[in-house]
Design goal:
single chain, 64 residues, alpha+beta, two-stranded antiparallel ribbon, 2 helices, 19% strand
Length: 64
């Protein structure tokens, strides 16, 4: 449902990614990915999927 919803929102949707530093909250980082699921296809039988987190992180940018 989340992927399908994101695909209907176009560039209004942001996938937020957060890295949390266990020792220093000041070092936590947030990145937003616009159009994260463009070209992503699910079939009706799909219940979950695993994606390459690092690939999304590289695509992300600073919160705006």
């Amino acid at each position: 449902n989340e992927v399908t919803f994101a695909q209907t929102q176009g560039d209004r949707h942001r996938l937020a990614l957060v890295t949390v530093d266990p020792d220093d909250p000041a070092r936590d980082e947030v990145r937003y990915v616009v159009n994260a699921f463009t070209g992503f296809h699910l079939n009706d039988a799909t219940r979950s999927t695993n994606e390459d987190w690092a690939r999304y992180w590289r695509r992300g940018g600073e919160p705006q």
